[in-house]
Amino acid sequence: MPALNVSLIKWTSCRHLQLTVILQVTLKSGASPEELENAKKSAIDQGGKITNEFTLIKAFTVEFPADKVHTLETNDHVTVEPDSVVTTQ
Predict the structure, then answer these.
(1) CA distance 28 to 59
(2) How far apart are CA 77 and CA 39, in angstroms?
C-alpha cells in the first residue's frame, strides 16, 4: 500500500490530538455480501466512521484512526487505499 497522507486532524480534547485518514476499502473479487458487512463492522468496531457506501461495487469510504490502519489491512478480503478523486476523460 502506498504511503498514507493524513487528510484530517480531529481534536478530541484540549490535550489530545487524534489523527485520522480517509480510506477507500474495496472488497476483492468474489467476496460475498457477508464479507462486506463484516468489513464494515470491523472498521466501525475499531473506531472508524463510514462516510460513503457504494452500490455498483462492494466498497465503502471510512474515516479511520491513523494509528490503526494496519488492522484494516489484515483482512484478506479487502484492499485498503487512501481516498482520492477519480476522473474520467
Answers:
(1) 9
(2) 8
**C-alpha cell, 5:** 497522507
In a domain, 87, yes or no: no
| Span between the terminal Cα atoms of the chain, in Å | 26
Give pLDDT tens digits for 7-66: 444 545 455 666 888 888 999 888 899 999 999 999 999 889 999 999 888 999 999 888
Residue identified by cell 465503502 is 60
Is residue 2 in a domain? Answer: no
CATH, residue 31: 3.30.70.80
* Cell matching residue 88: 474520467
